[in-house]
Write a structure and sequence with these properties.
Length: about 150
């Protein structure tokens, strides 16, 4: 077994997305998989590892809130474009369509397994430990002191 630290981050998320495509190929077809992988690569290049460790988990937290019914799904608020004429995110939107209606409300009978798959993809790097720069460490300390 290969230790996680030796796996390429993109390879890991690509494997999860391929698994989702195999399971939900009816809605998440090969073309959508290819576009999603390109999107992940592009955003990782533009945003760095923060896309995997911060942005995707932020979408997951939004998903969780929407599932409770306290809010409707609106991925624009967490940095994701939507599918035309809907509140579903373009990123994994086909899978989100198995859980939410176009207006962002939960379907009467959402696919619970699909929720698990999406959460697995969005949270795979949530606790990924990265070294912080001295400036980032100082920002955290300053924010803590300000709060206190």
């Amino acid at each position: 077994m290969v230790p996680i630290k030796r796996l390429d981050k993109f390879d890991l998320i690509a494997t999860l997305l391929c698994s989702a495509q195999q399971r939900y190929g009816v809605v998440f077809n090969t073309k959508q998989l290819r576009l999603t992988l390109q999107n992940v690569k592009r955003r990782c290049l533009n945003e760095g590892t923060g896309f995997l460790t911060k942005t995707l988990p932020r979408l997951c937290k939004h998903l969780d809130q929407a599932l409770t019914g306290t809010i409707k799904l609106n991925p624009i608020t967490v940095g994701f474009a939507t599918i035309d004429d809907s509140k579903l995110p373009r990123f994994l939107g086909e899978l989100f369509s198995l859980i939410f209606q176009k207006d962002g409300s939960v379907l009467p009978d959402p696919d619970a397994n699909c929720v698990r798959v999406i959460r697995g993809i969005l949270l795979v790097f949530y606790k990924y430990e990265l070294p912080y720069t001295p400036a980032q460490e100082q920002d955290v300390v300053s924010a803590f002191v300000k709060t206190e």
